[in-house]
């Protein structure tokens, strides 16, 4: 039978919800409402002129801007690479960690450590490793005849921020996958082994289907992470360069607002970015979730 908690007082549930509701209102709804308001206005970044109501003019200018349309393609490539690579690598590491008997604690602790590193610091670490002049990885690649210079090569710059973003997020994904693997009854794996199923077949027919809720959850989280939480990595590693090869949408919002001083255009971009992420999340829950086995 379904159990329901009944509060004796009507105000107690609202009092318990109040702290979280205040945080959401202050740090989400109020900034979002300000972005919506500024997106239909034209204003001087220094406040020397009156605010003008321009309606949809800021949005129209964005669609007429080839660099903004190009940033959509850059963001799409970046988010797909980060989500797919991060989930795949963390799943592989979780499978290996689940099978380790000796030294398992040390192995798992080392995989969790990157999550404690700030995004900007993670970007700087990877920039130093791949620096064309003093990076150890770039030096090693040069010995194999591969000339690495992400300051001039757009594809290499994209690869650099993808690697930094995946490395920063891999610990988060790893924790959820490891918890999901350890929650699968060992009796199912043992029964399949007795029936003659090899490890690879046991994984694809038993473990991976049972991990589908975890995989779906991480897919949503990683897409949101790639769209919103990778600004510091791009800013510290490439600053959107070379040219605008790594200027993803969240970085372009910052660049146009704080460097180009286009407050209305930047607000319009933030509104569009928010709508894109909401739409992607709805699509994932509407269609991708149908393939999830709970």
Automatic annotation (TrEMBL):
It holds the Pfam family BPD_transp_1. Belongs to the binding-protein-dependent transport system permease family. The chain crosses the membrane at residues 12-30, 76-97, 109-129, 157-179, 208-228, 267-288. The complex is composed of two ATP-binding proteins (UgpC), two transmembrane proteins (UgpA and UgpE) and a solute-binding protein (UgpB). It is a multi-pass membrane protein. It comes from the Bacteria. The gene is ugpA. The keyword Endoplasmic reticulum does not apply. NCBIfam families: PRK10561.1. The keyword Magnesium does not apply. Gene3D superfamilies: MetI-like (1.10.3720.10). InterPro entries: MetI-like, MetI-like_sf, UgpAE/MalFG_permease. This is sn-glycerol-3-phosphate transport system permease protein UgpA. Keywords: Cell inner membrane, Cell membrane, Membrane, Transmembrane, Transmembrane helix, Transport. It is found in: Cell inner membrane; Cell membrane. Residues 72-284 form the ABC transmembrane type-1 domain.
